[in-house]
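Slide 14.
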Amino acid sequence: MTDALQNAERLAERIAGRAGRYDQDAAFPQQDIDELREEGFLGLMVPTRLGGMGAGFEDYVRVAAALARGNPSTALIFNMHASVTGGLASISDELARGLGAGDGFLTARDRILHAAVEGSMYGVAITESQAGSRLSALRCTYEREGGGFRIRGTKSFCSGAGHLDAYLVAARREGSTDDAPVISYFLVPAGAGIRVNRTWNPLGMRATASNGLELDAWVADQALLGGVEGLVLPLAYGMPQWLVASYAAVYVGLAEAAVGQGIAYLRERRVAGDRGGLARLATVRQRVGRAEADAQAARLVLERAARLVDLRPGDPETNRWTYRAKLLAGDVAWRVSATVGEACGLGALQRGGPLERILRDARSGAIMPPSSDVAGDYLGALALGVEDPEGVRPW
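Slide 15: predicted structure.
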C-alpha cells in the first residue's frame, strides 16, 4: 500500500491549505472529500475483487494519520466512512455464516462496498444525548413494519451529516430491556425520514459538520446489517478496532502535525539580539523533544495495535492494544499541542493560525468514544484482574 500512503501524503498537503477556511466557517470540507473520492480512497478498505484497494487495518491507520496531518476534521469524516466499509469488509463469508447471517447479507455487503468504490460515502450515527456512544444505553428504537423496519430516534452528532449517501445507525429493538438490550445496525439511505439539525458550532473539529439527526425512517429488510438482529454488542466487544483504534489514527496524525508546525515556526522565529532564534533556548528544545517523543510513542503503540488487528483480529490481547492506542492518542494529542504551543508562544496561537486550530482540534481526542477515562478504566480493570465489574463496560 505504499502508493496509497504516498498519495495520501500528497493529498494532505493540498488539504492543509484549505483547513483554515473550513474551520472558520465550521463547513463541510467538500473539496477535500471530492479529492478523496477522485483518488479512490473511498474504496481503501474494499477488497480488490470488488474494485477497491484491499487495505488492511495497518494500511488504514497510516493513511488516516497522513490525512490528519493535513486536516484532522477531514480525516475524521474519512474515518467514519472507513469504519463502515472496513467493518463490513472484515466480516468474511465464514464469519458471517458463523454469526447466523445468510446469503442476503453477503449480497448486501458486497453491494455496499462496491458502491463505495463508485463514490458513495457513509457515516456513523451512534451518539445520543445522555447515552453518549455507549451502545447498550441507546434509546433510538426500531421495530418491524411492512416487510421492513421503522427506526425512530435522535442522534446528537454524526460526522458529515447532511452530506452523505447513507448512515450506519445503531438502534435498540422496541421493547428490549436495559438488562438485555437487543442492539442492531442499519444502513439507512439519506433522504426521506432523516432530518439534519444543523447546530454544529464547536471549539474544535469544526469542519466535521457533525450535526444531529432526527430519524423516523422506514427501511427494507436489506438495511439490517448482518441480516440478524442483536449483532452489534458482540461485535463491539469482540472486535472493537473500528470503534476504538480507528479514532486513534486521527489524533496521532494531529499530534505529529503539532510537532511539525511548531518546528517550522520555531526555526523562523527570531529573538532580538540573538541570531539563533528561539531554537537556541534550552526550555524550547526540551518541550519540542518531549512532544516529538510523545507523538512517536503514540504512533508505535497505534501501529502495534493495527498490526495485531490484521494478524489476530478478536484476540483479547489485540483488543487490549486497541484501547491502549486510543487512550494514548487522545491524551498525547492534547499534551503535545499544548506543550508545543507554550514553546512557540502567543505569536503562534493567533486566531486562525495552524497551531491554534490544531490545539482546539486536539482537545476533542480524550473525549471521543471511548473517552480516555473509559479506556483507562477498562485497561485498569484488565490489569487488576477485575472481572466484569459494574460500570467497566465500554459499550
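Speaker note: The beta strands are 122-125, 141-145, 148-158, 166-173, 183-189, 194-197, 211-220.
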